[in-house]
Amino acid sequence: MDLQHLPRSDILAxxxxxxxxxxxxxxxxxxxxxxxxxxxxxxxEVFPITGDTPWGLxxxxxxxxxxxxxxxxxxxxxxxxxxxxxxPADIPLAMALMVSENEMRAQISPWEKGAxxxxxxxxxxxxxxxxxxxALYPTLTRQARSRLRGxxxxxxxxGDLMTHxxxxxxxxxxxxxxxxxxxxxxxxxxxxxxxxRASADRQWRALLPAIxxxxxxxxxxxxxxxxxxxxxxxxxxxxx
Length: 240
Hints:
Blueprint: E1 3-7, E2 11-12, H1 25-38, E3 44-48, E4 55-59, H2 61-73, E5 80-85, H3 91-105, H4 110-122, H5 129-136, H6 142-158, H7 170-181, H8 185-192, H9 200-213
Parallel strand pairs: 2-4, 3-5
Antiparallel strand pairs: 1-5, 3-4
Helix pairs in contact: 1-2, 4-5, 4-6, 5-6, 6-7, 7-9, 8-9
């Protein structure tokens, strides 16, 4: 294990997406008090990134929040932080553990799951959304991983345009994924441009025509078959 004390200013806290749910203030305060009195028992985990900040935070978001708060109370107290440096080969496993922990601890929105996959690819940790999904969610069924890949592709296509994407239900993100699989991504992007940063409801209404046109392609191996249309009842035979 490569443990180093790194300057806090060299660590980008939001290098990777993690759950955005509000932390329990009481639990956070208790953790901060524990660190203040006993020190940091478990170092944070970082990985190398490109750009102005050399390290990205991989694990320990709550710990880093507490250290920042303590540093504001007593400037200079946590200018450097003990960090475990993860090498590129270790990052997929570490991320998978982080994802597993988040899944058990709190409900993560479908958009956040998709955004995590996209950011993992953007940072070069995986070469595609498919490989990121398989690595970060290895225990899920094939159907569940297919759904997550759909979430990732929705974020990939619409991520910069949606106003409040974290409010989208799983059902709505599924419908967006179906439209993108049907090749309607560009049409959806064009539909969003006129409404700009409108409300989530207005954006959804702008997308509805494209969503309504979406057809699951038979050759798409990830697509679930559409529900069968029941055969009309045969006409009753005429009595003699």
